[in-house]
C-alpha cells in the first residue's frame, strides 16, 4: 500500500512556487518569527529560522518568545568570491549578523543572528553583489562544490566552468525570490512560473553535487548525491566518472538510516555532462520517497530499487549507455596549507580557519585580516569544503604584501599547528542549530589541546589525522568520513567512530557509544600508543586501525565500505 505524501509535500504543493505567506510574515511586527509552514518554504530562499537555545529557558520564565533570528546562506558555485564581494559580505556580517562570517563545509558563507526586519536588506545586498541565496537550502540541487585549488590552471578552469553551468542549469526558475526580496512584480492570481525540472513540489529532499579533480578529493566526492570525478590526461579534461548515492545523514537508533558512499557507475564526456546530471536529478524527483523524509535521499532510492535498476532507468532516459569508468587515484581529502605555485606562475595561499568561523577574537583578528586582504588582493578567494580559504591567483610581486597582512592578523597560525588540528572539521551545533544534541564548534577549541597533548605523548604531534565533530547524526561536517569522529548524543556525550581513510573512500565505524570526554580520551590513548609503535611507513591512522582489526566485526556496524 502506497503511503501518503509527507506534510512537507503538502506545504510545497500549496506554496505557490515557494511564495507561501513569507512576504506577509516578514511584515508582521508582533513576532520575530514567521509561521511554521513559511519557515519550511523559506529554506528554499537560503534561510533557516533559528533561536538562541542558550536563552530559551530564561526567556520562557520571563514569558517571552524565543530569541528568534535567521541564518542566511549564499549560493557560491565552487566557492569563488571576488574581493569586491568579500567586502560586501564582511559588511553584512558586521551590520546585520552577529559580527562573524562562517565558511561552511559546502564552500559558501553563512551569516548568523540576522533578525527578521534585516533579512530582506541583507538578501538584497547579496544580490547587488552579484550573488544569491536562492536554492542554498531546501529540496533542490544545493550549492555545487568543486576542487578549489587552481594548480593546473587550464583543467581547473574547465572543471570550474562545468560546476558553474551545473549550478545555473539546475537552479529553480520561480520568480518568488525576486518578488519577495528584490521588490519584483508581485504575484497576482496563481503563479505561472515554469519549473520544467522541479515541478510544483521540487525534489523529495536536498540534492548535493560535488566535482573533484584527482589526486585531490577535498570535496569528499563520495559524500555527494552526484559525485563527478574529473578525468584529466596531459592537461586535457576528457570527461567525468559519475558516482551516485552518497550521503552522510543518519538517525540515532534507526538502522534504516545510514551514511553511504557514492557508487561509481560510469563515465561521460563533457558535452554529455549536463544532460546526465539533469536526468539523475529528474530520476530522483520521480522515484524518491515523498512519504518519509528521512528515507528521501537518492542513496535510499538506489538501495531500495538496486543500483543496476537505477542505472538502466537512467540510460533509458538518456538514450545512451554510460561508458566504463576511467582510472583515477586520490591521495588525500584535506587542504594543503601555505603557498603553492600554479602552473601559470600565479600563487595560491591556503589559510586555516578553525571551524570556518571568521571572527575577531583575541590575537586572532581573522575577520579584519581577510577584510584587509580583500582591499589589496588582485586575484580572488576560494572557499574550501574543509572550511578554509584560499587567497588565489596572487602575482608573485604581491606575495610579500599578502604575507604582512596575514601575519599581522594571526592568520598564519597554521604554521605551528599539529597534524590533527590542521585536519579538523566541526559543524555549528549549539546554540543556533535546532537539531544539535551536543556541542561541536564550541567544543572543538577545548578538545583539540587534549588530543594534541595525548598525541605528543606518543610522538605523534605532526601525524595528519582527520578529525570530524558533529553535534548530531545528520552529518553536516561529514563525520562518517573522519579517521576519528565524534557524533553528538546528548550534552557532553558522543559516539566515537574510527577507521575512515585519508582519501575519503571509506566510512568509519562505531567504536564507543554514548561516551563522555574522559571515555573518548581513554579509548584513544592505547590506540595512539599502538599506532606510534606499529605503524608502517606512510600509513595513516585510519588505515592502521583497519589493518589491526581494532573494530569488532561482530558489533552492530554500518559496513566499512571501500570505493573501487
Description:
- The structure is a single chain.
- This protein has about 575 residues and is α+β, with helices and mostly antiparallel strands.
- It is about 30% helix and about 20% strand.
- It is built from 17 helices and 22 strands.
- Strands 1-2-5-4-13 form a five-stranded antiparallel β-sheet. The chain has a five-stranded antiparallel β-sheet with strand order 3-16-17-12-11.
- Strand 11 (about 340) and strand 12 form a beta hairpin.
- It is globular and about 70 Å long.
- The chain starts with 6 loop residues before the first helix and ends in a 17-residue tail after the last helix.
- Mean pLDDT is about 95; it is low at about 555-564.
Summarize the structure.
It contains 17 helices and 22 strands. With 564 residues, it is an alpha+beta fold.
Amino acid at each position: 500500500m502506497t503511503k501518503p505524501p509527507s506534510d512537507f509535500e503538502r506545504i510545497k504543493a500549496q506554496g505557490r512556487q515557494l511564495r507561501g505567506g513569507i512576504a506577509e510574515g516578514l511584515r508582521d511586527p508582533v513576532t520575530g518569527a514567521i509561521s511554521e509552514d513559511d519557515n519550511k518554504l523559506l529554506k528554499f530562499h537560503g534561510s533557516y529560522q533559528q533561536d538562541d537555545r542558550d536563552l530559551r529557558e530564561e526567556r520562557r520564565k520571563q514569558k517571552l518568545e524565543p530569541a528568534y533570528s535567521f541564518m542566511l546562506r549564499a549560493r557560491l558555485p565552487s566557492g569563488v568570491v571576488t574581493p569586491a564581494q568579500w567586502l560586501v559580505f564582511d559588511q553584512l556580517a558586521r551590520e546585520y549578523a552577529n559580527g562573524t562570517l562562517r565558511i561552511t563545509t559546502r564552500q559558501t558563507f553563512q551569516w548568523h543572528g540576522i533578525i527578521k526586519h534585516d533579512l530582506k536588506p541583507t538578501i538584497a545586498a547579496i544580490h547587488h553583489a552579484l550573488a544569491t541565496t536562492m536554492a542554498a537550502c531546501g529540496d533542490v540541487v544545493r550549492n555545487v562544490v568543486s576542487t578549489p585549488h587552481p594548480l593546473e590552471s587550464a583543467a581547473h578552469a574547465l572543471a570550474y566552468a562545468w560546476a558553474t553551468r551545473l549550478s545555473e542549469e539546475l537552479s529553480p526558475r520561480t520568480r518568488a525570490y525576486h518578488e519577495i526580496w528584490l521588490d519584483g512584480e508581485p504575484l497576482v492570481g496563481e503563479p505561472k512560473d515554469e519549473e520544467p525540472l522541479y515541478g510544483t513540489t521540487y525534489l523529495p529532499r536536498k540534492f548535493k553535487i560535488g566535482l573533484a579533480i584527482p589526486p585531490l578529493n577535498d570535496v569528499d566526492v563520495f559524500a555527494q548525491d552526484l559525485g563527478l570525478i574529473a578525468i584529466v590526461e596531459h592537461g586535457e579534461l576528457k570527461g567525468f566518472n559519475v558516482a551516485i548515492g552518497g550521503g552522510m545523514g543518519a538517525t540515532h537508533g534507526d538502522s534504516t538510516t545510514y551514511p553511504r558512499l557514492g557508487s561509481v557507475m560510469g563515465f561521460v564526456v563533457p558535452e554529455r555532462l549536463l544532460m546526465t546530471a539533469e536526468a539523475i536529478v529528474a530520476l530522483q524527483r520521480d522515484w524518491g520517497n515523498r512519504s518519509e523524509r528521512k528515507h528521501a535521499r537518492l542513496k535510499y532510492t538506489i538501495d531500495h530499487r538496486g543500483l543496476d535498476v537505477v542505472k538502466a532507468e537512467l540510460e533509458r532516459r538518456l538514450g545512451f549507455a554510460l561508458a566504463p569508468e576511467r582510472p583515477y587515484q586520490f591521495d588525500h581529502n584535506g587542504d594543503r596549507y601555505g603557498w603553492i605555485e600554479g602552473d601559470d606562475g600565479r600563487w595560491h595561499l591556503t589559510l586555516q580557519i578553525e571551524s570556518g568561523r571568521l571572527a575577531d577574537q583575541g590575537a586572532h583578528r581573522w575577520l579584519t585580516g581577510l577584510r584587509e586582504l580583500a582591499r589589496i588582493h588582485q586575484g580572488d578567494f576560494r572557499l574550501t569544503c574543509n572550511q578554509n580559504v584560499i587567497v588565489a591567483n596572487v602575482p608573485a610581486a604581491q606575495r610579500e604584501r599578502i604575507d604582512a597582512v596575514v601575519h599581522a592578523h594571526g592568520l598564519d597560525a597554521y604554521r605551528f599547528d599539529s597534524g590533527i588540528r590542521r585536519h579538523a572539521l566541526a559543524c555549528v551545533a549549539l546554540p543556533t542549530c535546532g537539531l544539535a544534541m551536543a556541542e561541536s564548534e564550541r567544543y572543538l577549541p577545548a578538545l583539540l589541546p587534549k588530543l594534541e597533548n595525548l598525541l605528543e605523548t606518543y610522538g605523534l604531534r605532526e601525524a595528519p589525522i582527520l578529525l570530524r565533530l558533529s553535534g548530531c547524526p545528520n552529518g553536516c561536517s561529514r563525520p562518517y568520513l573522519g579517521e576519528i569522529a565524534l557524533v553528538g548524543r546528548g550534552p557532553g556525550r558522543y559516539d566515537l567512530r574510527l577507521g575512515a581513510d585519508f582519501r575519503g573512500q571509506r566510512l568509519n565505524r562505531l567504536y564507543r557509544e554514548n561516551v563522555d570526554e574522559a571515555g573518548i580520551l581513554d579509548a584513544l590513548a592505547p590506540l595512539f600508543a599502538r599506532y606510534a609503535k606499529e605503524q608502517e611507513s606512510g600509513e595513516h591512522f585510519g588505515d592502521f586501525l583497519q589493518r589491526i582489526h581494532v573494530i569488532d566485526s561482530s558489533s552492530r556496524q554500518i559496513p566499512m565500505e571501500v570505493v573501487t
